[in-house]
Amino acid sequence: MSQVESRTDAGVRGWQIEAGEARRAPFEAGPLVRVVVGPAAGEPVGVLEVTLPAGGAMPEHDHGDSSVLLVPLAGCFRLVEAGQDGAALELRPGSLATIPVGRRVRLENAGETEARTLAVLTPPDFAEQLDAWPAAGAPGPDPQAETLAAALEREHREIDQAIEAFLEGVSEGRTETGPLTRAMEALRRHIYLEEQFLFPPLRDAGFMAPVLVMLREHGELWQTMTAIERELVEDATLSGAPAQCKLLLAQLERHNSKEEPILYPHADDVLGAPASAELRAFMRSGQMPDGWVCTSA
Ligand SMILES: [Fe+2]
Ligand SMILES: [Fe+2]
Fold this sequence. Notes:
Strand content: 15-25%
Number of helices: 5
Strand order of the largest sheet: 3-4-5-12-7-10
Order of helices and strands: EEEEEEEEEEEEHHHHH
Bound molecules: fe (ii) ion
Largest sheet: 6 strands, antiparallel
Shape: globular
C-alpha cells in the first residue's frame, strides 16, 4: 500500500505514487500500472498511475462499473473512443479526460517519449482487474524469442485465467462482467486467426483430419459464447452465466489439449518466419472483422 500518513479518524490520507504496487500488462508494449490507491484502501476512489512506453498502447477496454478521470503527468496520449469513427482526444499535462461507465476506449502513447497519466476511478472496482496482471519484476513475454505456437498457447492460458477470474468474482458476490467479455472477445479473435490464417496452410500440409475436428469444436465454443452473452444481457444477477462459463472452460480444455500437441508444433514451420511474425503482430493489435463468424457456427 502506498499510503504514507494517516490520521486515526481515517480522514485525510497522504499517498506516494511511487510506493504503489507496480504491475505490467500481460501483452507486449502495454502499460506499466502502479496501484496507488487500490480497492482495499476503503476509499470511494481508486488511483492508478499508468505509464505507456513510446509506441505502446492499452488496447480497447472498458472500466467495468468505474467511471474514470485521466490526469496526464508526462508525455502525450491519444484516447480513442470505440464506435466514434476514430474520433480521438489528444492528452498532455494540463488537459484531462473523463470516461463515463460503459464507454470503451483505447489509450495510445502519441509521442516519442514515455507517457504517464493518473487514472482516478470511482468507484475503485476496476483496479481489482490489475490483480490478474503480473508484478512488474516478473519476466514477461519476449516477442523476439516467442514462437507463434508459444504465443497461441499463452493466449489459451490468458483466456482460461480471465474466465476463471470471472467465476471467482461471482462466487464472491461481484457482478463485474468486463473480464469475461474481454476473454470472449479474445477467444473469438483467436478462433478467427486460426481459421483464417493458420488452419488453411496446416490443411494443405496434410493435417486435414485434426483441422476438421478443431473447426467443429470452434463451432461448439462459439455457441457457448453466444449463450453466455445472452445470459449476461438477460439476467443481471448472473445466475446462469457461471454454469455456461464452466462448460466453456471444459470445452476449451478438451480443444486446447489436442490443438497444442497436434497442430501448434507445426504452426511456425508450415507458415514460415515472415507469416508467423505477422500473425504474432496480429495477436498484439489486430482486430477481427465485424460480424465474422467461425466456419461451424
Ligand atoms: Fe482452436
Ligand atoms: Fe487455439
